[in-house]
Specification:
It is built from 13 helices and eleven strands. With 480 residues, the chain is α/β, with parallel strands linked by helices. The chain has two domains: 24-201 and 316-458, Zn peptidases (Aminopeptidase, 3-Layer(aba) Sandwich); 203-312, Alpha-Beta Plaits (2-Layer Sandwich), CATH 3.30.70. The strands form two sheets. It has a seven-stranded mixed β-sheet. Strands 8-9-7-10 form a four-stranded antiparallel β-sheet. Mean pLDDT is 94; it is low at 1-19. Residues 1-19 form the signal peptide.
Length: 480
């Protein structure tokens, strides 16, 4: 073959690749075209503010909107009444986007910069999941339209995942094999800045420890009683002594959810709700076994019996370097946003409720943070996305949906999640997700690189969940 022919062939190949490269500007325009509709959906879900596994209105709304957009929907998956999967297309690759929509108890809040519940004591979206589920769906709809117009091969899925806040909804989906055959998973989460989520988070195990004793008159016949509350208090003491001897980046926190009915009756039933966390899923196993032994010891010391139930668990998130690189590039391409004058006024008034020194500049919404390695000692939360990441290559984003300096799980976060500040951050996330999904559909090499990184990360490690194999989703884990 002559050099001229070789040169022509190389040029043709280059032009062909260029022709197949996704049109990022069009994808962003498709997100913008549907943004108003999904902002409205996010506000409706913010108003519903439903607890985990009881998000009937929120789940139904998302399902209706996705069906109307051309997705097929399978509802009630993994024994979760509000869980569902929406699908479009066929064949490989299979790219999935995760959506959540559960609220938190006790965080009801109006869209006001001062504490003012809609209904005192009612749930509220203090973690912004009204934005999370809606923004993920907005990305899915934009990608679907792009796939249809450009005849992009592959399967796009949206996973409607309930009860992320303590209900381990995704864990049961993983367990039921609902992610088998999926090539890559994308997720995002509301926050007060714009960044790529590449691994991290704390593995967590939770359970209710219920002690059963013997009731008796606390003054006339205490010798006949066996105090379940004594067992709970001894368990708490044991945990406090244990703290010195576990890794310093661990977290153990609990409440006494039941402590008796009257001080003159020896409590025959008491309960502790406890959560333990560590950056390593494997390290957490040993900590949890120690906690179980403390609980059993407390029962022996008090002549009571102990029952451990309603076990929940989320793994840490497995990082993926190949996906992080393209996700960072796309988030930087999208960029952040600048608050309007009204939004700045709201934000400055809300920041007055923060502790001293905890109110950063508002221009944090405009910036994209650089990609950083995971710091296992940095403060972190937990999510059942971790369990998905042990099954499928996974990458995520966080975007500025909260007033800078806001902490999640607060009334301040709930207030902002119902405003245009939250919705503008949601659109940033939708665009970054949509760009990355289409890149994955049109670049087989990227998918293969993601799988290679995944295999390297999990090599020699074992996925672990303490949730008993026979345990079904605990639908009323929050209590009635």
């Amino acid at each position: 073959m002559s050099f001229a022919i070789v040169g022509t062939a190389v040029l043709a190949a280059g032009l062909s690749a260029l022709a197949q490269a996704p049109d990022h500007k069009q994808i962003e325009s498709l997100v913008d075209a549907h943004a108003a509709q999904w902002r409205d959906v996010s506000k409706q879900i913010w108003n519903y503010a439903e607890l985990g596994y009881h998000e009937e209105k929120s789940s139904a709304l998302l399902q209706r909107e996705l069906k109307a957009a051309g997705f097929s929907v399978e509802a009630g998956v993994a024994d979760e009444p509000t869980g569902f999967i929406a699908s479009y297309g066929s064949g490989k690759p299979v790219i999935a986007i995760l959506g959540e929509f559960d609220a938190l108890p006790g965080l009801s809040q109006k869209t006001e910069p001062e504490r003012d519940p809609v209904i005192a004591g009612a749930p509220g979206h203090g973690c912004g999941h009204n934005l999370l589920g809606s923004g993920a769906a907005l990305a899915a709809v934009a990608v679907k339209e792009y796939m249809a117009e450009h005849k992009v091969a592959g399967t796009l899925r949206y996973y409607g995942t309930p009860a992320e806040e303590g209900g381990s909804g995704k864990v049961y989906m993983v367990r039921d094999g609902l992610f088998k055959g999926v090539d890559v998973v994308l997720h995002w989460h509301p926050g007060d800045g714009n960044a790529v989520i590449n691994g991290g988070a704390l593995a967590v195990i939770s359970a209710k420890f219920t002690f059963h004793g013997v009731a008796a008159h606390a003054a006339m016949a205490p010798d006949r009683g066996r105090s379940a509350l004594d067992a709970v208090m001894l368990m708490g003491n044991g945990i406090e002594f244990m703290r010195e001897h576990i890794p310093s980046n661990s977290r153990v926190h609990y409440i006494v959810s039941k402590g008796g009915v009257a001080p003159n009756i020896v409590p025959d039933l008491a309960q502790m709700d406890l959560m333990a966390r560590n950056p390593s899923n494997e390290t957490l196993q040993g900590i949890w076994k120690w906690i179980e032994n403390i609980a059993q010891g407390a029962a022996l010391m008090t002549g009571t019996t102990m029952q451990m139930e309603d076990i929940g668990s989320d793994a840490n998130i497995v990082p993926n370097a190949a996906l992080a690189k393209v996700a960072q590039r796309n988030l930087e391409e999208v960029g952040g946003y600048t608050m309007s004058a009204d939004e700045k006024d709201f934000a400055l008034r809300l920041q007055k409720s923060f502790p001293a020194g905890m109110a950063p500049d508002l221009d944090q919404t405009e910036k994209v943070e650089p990609l950083r390695p995971i710091d296992p000692n940095a403060p972190a939360a937990s999510t059942d996305v971790g369990d998905v990441s042990w099954a499928v290559p996974t990458i995520g984003f966080t975007t500025a949906t909260f007033v800078p300096g806001s902490a999640a799980h607060t009334w301040q976060a709930a207030a902002t999640a119902g405003t245009t500040i939250g919705q503008r951050g949601m659109v940033v996330a939708s665009k970054a997700i949509a760009l990355t999904v289409v890149d994955l559909f049109t670049d087989a090499g990227l998918v293969q690189s993601a799988k290679a990184d995944f295999d390297a990360e999990v090599k020699g490690k074992t996925y672990y969940s303490p949730i008993p194999k026979g345990q079904k989703p605990v639908i009323d884990y929050r209590g009635k």
